[in-house]
Hints:
By secondary structure, the protein is an alpha/beta fold. The chain has helices at 15-26, 42-47, 49-68, 83-107, 161-164, 181-192, 212-224, 279-282, 318-332, 361-366, 382-387, 415-427, 432-436, 447-455, and strands at residues 5-11, 31-35, 111-114, 117-121, 124-127, 130-139, 143-145, 158-159, 173-177, 196-200, 228-230, 233-241, 244-251, 256-261, 263-266, 270-272, 305-307, 346-348, 353-358, 371-377, 393-399, 405-412. The longest helix is centred in the first third of the chain and has 25 residues, at 83-107.
Amino acid sequence: MDKNKVDLIVIGAGPGGYVAAIRAAQLGLSVLCVEKRKTLGGTCLNVGCIPSKALLYSSQKYEEAGHLLADHGVKIEKLSLDLKKMMERKEKVVEQLTGGIDYLFKKNKIQHAVGEAHILSAEEVKVNGETWKTKNILIATGSESASVPGITIDEKKIVSSTGGLSLDHVPEKLVVIGGGYIGLEMGSVWNRLGSKVTVVEFMDRLVPAMDHEMGAALMKTLTKQGINFKLSTKVMGIKEEKNKLILSLEDASGKKESLEADTVLVATGRKPYTHGLGLGKIGVALNEKGFIVVNDRYETSVSGVYAIGDVIPGPMLAHKAEEEGIAAVEIIAGQAGHVNYGAIPAVIYTHPEVASVGKTEEELKTEERSYKIGKFPFLANSRAKAVGDTEGFVKILADSLTDQVLGVHIIGPDAGTLIAEVVLGMEFSASAEDIARTCHAHPTLNEAVKEAAMAVDGRAIHI
């Protein structure tokens, strides 16, 4: 047997790639997973989702200790920040999780090569000078930070999200370019730790694809927390003067102004990462934005070559990549893989969190679809009241005729967890009535979801 021959080569070991590799091994396929990083887990585990959530949690603890625990009768004197310890904890979390994937690879007998993959054909991939033969190739190389013309990221004073996760000091003034998920989360971290944070966003609202009511509510609460916002504003350039960064800004009306910062975080989104794969040589088609074009089986324009995750069109979310990875390898193995893109949740891990699934109100209006709205505030939820975390509300959109849930949007405590029950409901085409008639434990935050579902029919109990 040729030792350099496998059933499947997965290129990329991020959430999409490593999950696909494990599922393929479970289905009896021999697998090689190629990853250029020394550690597994991709951007998400190494310099994205996981370290950012670790810092969000740690910074929230610091915020609670300094400003919130006194309301609970817990007094803390001489509070201080040990940023080095906070960063060490973040690194330990990353190390444990990436090490866990390494264990799973060994458990499932998945071969792992550290290096860059070059696709020679639909049956051959070169890694570290060695050529591997395969029956199928799955591209899961993810994405990279998008750049801003005229701005050079040095990861010291002008940083990407990667550099923003590893600053060795708290900047006095931090400017975040981009009011999307990454910018708002990282801005929240450093705002809590003491930075004066200003978010500059080119569009006229935060996270433009979000339900507009949620975006407005999020901006209101983050402003109360001390973050400043400049919407409809473009960064024209950055220059350094006397060890300070001076940003040149221009708003939609053409008005110009300058903004001073110690550190600038560029968080203007991400773009698909396809460098050096050799896609053009073998004829893999890309769309106008550089994403790999795939059919409903995740197969590219070249038979036997598949792609998933951030390199194909759709939301750039780790869990979306995981679902596609599982579906793709099940299809490769002769099964019926499928992803319901109408039930992919999205979460912003600020405080309060924002979670959404399905249609926004603006999308329903554009589609001229008749819908009903049910809303319920956490201020009227007993558990939220008991723990002292009452900001936000649940919003459910349901079809006017059938009552089928079309979209759910939550801003409030643990919104990212609360969204799961409605995602499950939407997988089964649940109606608002189905959720309203489901018994929810008391006292829980989830009761706000039940009450919002009841409110769709105008019969919420506690408002």
